Amino acid sequence: MNYKKKLIIVFTAAAIISGCSNNSDTNEKDDHTGHGEHQEHVINDIREETAGIDTLPTFLNEKSENIQVVYQAAAQHKDILENIPCYCGCGESAGHKSSYDCFVFENKENGSIVWDDHGTKCGVCLEIAAQSIVDFQEGKSVKEIRSKIDDLYKEGYSEPTPTPEV
Ligand SMILES: [Zn+2]
Ligand SMILES: [Zn+2]
Known about the structure:
The protein has helices spanning about 5-15, 65-75, 80, 90-95, 125-135, 140-155; strands spanning about 45-50, 105, 115. By secondary structure, the chain is mostly helical. It has one domain (about 5-15, about 35-150). A three-stranded antiparallel β-sheet has the order 1-3-2, with helices on one face. The protein is globular, with a radius of gyration of 15 Å. The chain binds zinc ion (ZN) (2 copies). The site of one zinc ion has 7 residues, from loops.
């Protein structure tokens, strides 16, 4: 399965989705005039259960293909994303522990999967996951990916999720 090309497109496209942090004290935000719509989400994340990784949730139906690709790839790279912090502020606002939580809420024992729509509304989440998976496919180790993400996002973003050290 080759998601790399698509993920690179996503990585670029994600930049146009506004970040989802509402913490304006620590974030310098541009004024939003000119944005057609700006959605604050934080507490209203939707959860939806499907039979497994290959069945995407219906809340993705009206989303772009780019977002669907990131969701599928994220679900398939649990081992990577569980070690990568998200810097969108979701650690505090949504109790997330890692980048993985922005896309998947729970894996059930019977193989079904509970998706979280947080990632659909958040450019930072999409970027971090897409970047991490692309780097993984290029052969980088989890440790290398993590320090790269930490470096890229340590300034100008929210506090990282409390993701255990690799
Ligand atoms: Zn987010
Ligand atoms: Zn996030």
